[in-house]
Amino acid sequence: MSNLPKLEISSQKTSTRTTVEYEQLAENSINILGEAYREAPGLIRIQILGSRQDFLDVIGKESAPDWLVAYVPQNSASTIVLLDNEQNPLSSLMLSKILTHEIAHLYTNILNRELPDWVKEGISMQLAQQVKIRTVTASNWDRISPQGEPFSGITWQAAAEVNGYEIAGLILCFLFERYGMKNIFDSLKGYTDGSVFLHLQQRGLDDASAIIDKMKSSLIEN
Fold it and tell me: Whole-angstrom Cα distance, residue 41 to residue 221?
């Protein structure tokens, strides 16, 4: 279990909860993630905003889809920006999952910030228990695997439009269940670039093509 990080939370008056309530939810997420990772951030800063415009200004975007209510700067191991306002308040369950998802990004960036976006998102989706599907349609699998390997030859932005977040989470679920979370994390720590599955093969897991074939057999709808 990793050491617990220091937590700093700032919130606008227009947010829907007290700072103490946010702290309690964040601490619950940290306790969950501490069981999964060997290393933890030293400090986690969570900035909670009550206005979508303020949220967009802070994350440096002119616009964003309505579902985007939390943001971790690229490769950050310390900072989360969260939108939670009185007009569209998040339920406690949804907020808990969002915090776990975003805090997991911080831990994963400490593990290895060079990991592809789909791996980072898949880990967060899985650890936050946000994966609602158990299978993938053949058409969506083909769309996120134009070169035969999941998420190879397609940008993360394009993959996200065909349920990429949940598919990535489902793939990480498969890898965790088959090879063990600790083993996968230890293997991913040394990744630099190229095929994730070839890297796993080089770290002593199954042949890359065998891993992909087993995933397809397990995850694609019959």
Answer: 39
pTM over 0.85? The answer is yes
Pick the range with the lowest mean pLDDT from 26-40, 86-100, 145-159, 183-197: 86-100
| Strands, E assignment, the chain | 6-11, 43-49, 70-71, 79-83
> 153: exposed, middle or buried (C-beta count within 10 Å: 0-12, 13-18, 19+)?
exposed
Using 50, 70 and 90 to split pLDDT, how confident is the model at 1?
Answer: low
User: Other CB atoms closer than 10 Å to residue 130's CB: what's the count?
Assistant: 17
Q: Which long-range contacts (CB under 8 A, 24 or more apart) does 170-174 make?
A: 170/122, 170/131, 170/133, 170/134, 170/136, 170/219, 171/122, 171/215, 171/219, 172/119, 172/122, 172/123, 172/125, 172/126, 173/126, 173/131, 174/214, 174/215, 174/218, 174/219
φ and ψ of 180, to 5 deg: 95, 135
